[in-house]
From TrEMBL, chain B:
It is found in: Nucleus. This is Exosome complex component RRP4. Residues 99-169 form the RRP4 S1 domain. The lineage of its organism: Eukaryota, Metazoa, Ecdysozoa, Arthropoda, Crustacea. Keywords: Exosome, Nucleus, RNA-binding, rRNA processing.
């Protein structure tokens, strides 16, 4: 194993520090979910499903819907995830996503409100990690953004009756659907610290060589909405500053490429779902 | 900076142009209700219907119908392709695990240091064992191991170290007993390990190859392959048989060769081609028109494997 995997901007697999491995994306493969997406990043495989249910909004944000993340690390992904082994990682990915989307400039949840302070749409985002090949956070966040782009929520007709009662009706037209504007949904960019340099999209071998990483949530406009530090090692303040700059640049490119490809996929006529066996 | 996101839908369109749609069945699926077919491997007759007994795809030759399973044991000939992957159905790297034969060269990672032996991971069903009595002490001394040697085991090999060894014996439960009783075996450093399915490594007399591009490749029978820069020394070999690790930085040109070789090996493994010194060298030469990092893209990997296959076929025809 090479001691310093990225010396002179050349990594073990020939990539530069800022290069991502090729990814493959597909949306809409889970037909009974409101939205779904599958993202493969080399050997990392993530499946995300979005389900919409009606519930009560948060008391501090009565005019907005809710987003709830839950992550399941399948035992197929890694022997460490057997039984309850994957719970710690699952919890940290879920909380990282919650914090990334908590910012008001991230995703506007107001269109999801049905009756202010009484009812709203809750989007349950379920993430299943099928295979673990390094760089889970980035793959998960891109798949989540793709699933939210793909999500269609039924439009409801809200009418207030005389006695202050509110009637909520589901429209008869099955094609009357609400779509979320995921333009500003953030993507997570993981920067791994190796010998005071940061590398993006680490493989499992590279992750084993490093003691610390910085996970940043970046929107399409290059805005950083959340920063998490993972690992036992430490960062020098100047390294953190340059890492955040690098993350902002990379995040903007990642978001832009993802949105472009999602729009291309939408334009394909008679798209056949490839799924897992295709 | 490069971010490359593809769509699964576009891959579907490219691939359907090159092959027909495969009929995939699971155990219990009716293959055909027509009684006029002969029953082949993987099927049984249930009344009038022919039903599949394994999970795989249907092969029809005239009036014979058989179901070819996905996880077929590979027999190993130069240039053959595994049938399951020809249909593009299998993508996992870790398809088969390594059973092992006496005399095989393996690369392994030390998992545990136990009393008088090391437990080594060689991608087999059970961890392999490297007994203290099967190693040469540093300096190549041949003597009986004493109590002090037992206590100093960790100074020779620690958890996480990579070694090259040979299979000495197979225990009754199927686990392998390794030995490093030769100067060419020992601790490995300053290189890259690549894992491929073990049945893609051709069984040959020599597994240590010094390639003309300046790298040394050790093709472990267990599917673990070690690539490092060729060490030019008096003995001319990569192994010093010892436990000394050279921790100096490897210069950039050699690292470029190593990473290109790594990507070429993964490209060949991705197209299920046999791995031996000639095929790896041809793949390396075929990949010279691409940058090393472009070899990670699936279409480039397929092209390199294709060019290599054509060159090997041409040679075999001569």
């Amino acid at each position: 194993m090479l001691q310093n995997p990225s010396w002179e901007d050349h990594r073990t697999d020939g990539r530069r520090r800022r290069d991502y491995r090729p990814m493959e994306l597909e949306t809409g493969l889970v037909t009974h979910a409101a939205g779904s997406a599958r993202l493969r990043l080399a050997t990392t495989d993530v499946l995300v499903g979005v389900k919409a249910e009606v519930g009560e909004p948060l008391p501090e944000r009565p005019r907005a819907g809710r987003l709830q993340f839950s992550v399941d690390c399948s035992a197929n992904a890694s022997p460490e995830f057997e039984g309850r082994g994957g719970e710690a990682l699952a919890g940290s990915i879920a909380s990282c996503l919650t914090r990334a989307y908590a910012s008001p400039s991230a995703l506007d949840l107001r269109p999801l409100s049905i009756v202010p302070a009484r009812q709203c749409w809750i989007l349950y985002v379920d993430i299943l990690i099928l295979e673990c090949g390094g760089n889970l956070y980035d793959a998960v966040s891109c798949a989540v953004k793709a699933a939210l782009f793909n999500a269609r929520v039924p439009e409801l007709d809200v009418s207030s009756a005389d006695s202050g009662r509110v009637d909520v009706e589901l429209s008869d037209d099955p094609f009357k659907l609400l779509r979320l504007d995921v333009e500003n949904a953030p993507c997570l960019v993981t920067l791994l610290l190796v010998d005071s340099e940061c590398i993006v999209d680490p493989t499992q071998e590279e992750e084993a060589c490093s003691k610390a990483s910085l996970v940043t949530a970046v929107t399409a406009g290059g805005l950083v909405t959340a920063v998490t530090k993972a690992g036992r090692g430490s960062f020098h303040p100047t390294t953190v500053a340059s890492a955040l700059e690098m993350a902002a640049e990379l995040g903007a490119v990642l978001n832009r490429t993802l949105t472009e490809q999602l729009q291309v996929e939408e334009q394909i006529e008679d798209r056949q779902i490839r799924g897992f066996l295709g | 900076m490069e971010v490359d996101i593809r769509l699964a839908a576009e891959r579907l369109r490219q691939e359907e142009a090159t092959r027909g749609a495969a009929q995939l069945v699971t155990p219990g699926d009716t293959v055909t209700g027509d009684g006029g077919f002969m029953r082949g491997h993987g099927t049984y007759k249930d009344g009038e219907n022919l039903v599949a007994s394994v999970a795989g795809f249907v092969r029809r030759i005239n009036r014979l119908i058989s179901v070819q399973p996905l996880k077929a044991r590979y027999n190993g000939e130069i240039g053959d392709d595994c049938p399951a992957v020809q249909e593009g159905l299998v993508t996992s790297e870790r398809l088969c695990c390594f059973p092992g034969e006496i005399g095989d060269v393996v690369i392994g990672r030390v998992i545990e240091v136990q009393q008088k032996r090391w437990k080594v991971d060689t991608c087999s069903r059970l961890h392999s064992l490297l007994m203290l009595s099967s190693v040469n002490l540093p300096g190549g001394e041949q003597r009986r191991k004493t109590q002090e040697d037992e206590l100093a085991m960790r100074s020779y090999l620690e958890e996480g170290d990579l070694i090259s060894a040979e299979v000495q014996n197979i225990f009754s439960d199927g686990s392998l007993s390794l030995h490093t009783r030769s100067l060419k075996y020992g601790k490995l450093s300053q290189g890259v390990m690549v894992a491929v399915p073990s049945n893609l490594v051709l069984r040959r007399k020599n597994h240590f190859h010094d390639l003309p591009c300046g790298a040394t490749v050790i093709l472990g029978n267990n599917g673990y392959i070690w690539i490092c820069a060729t060490v030019v020394g008096e003995d001319g070999g990569a192994g010093t048989g010892g436990y000394v690790q050279n921790l100096e930085r490897v210069p950039l040109p050699e690292r470029e060769v190593i990473s290109r070789l790594r990507n070429c090996i993964l490209a060949l493994a991705g197209s299920w081609m046999m791995l031996y010194d000639t095929s790896i060298l041809y793949a390396f030469e075929a990949s010279s028109k691409f940058q090393a990092r472009d070899l990670l893209k699936p279409e480039v990997m397929a092209e390199v494997a294709d060019l290599t296959r054509k060159r090997l076929d041409l040679e075999a025809a001569e």
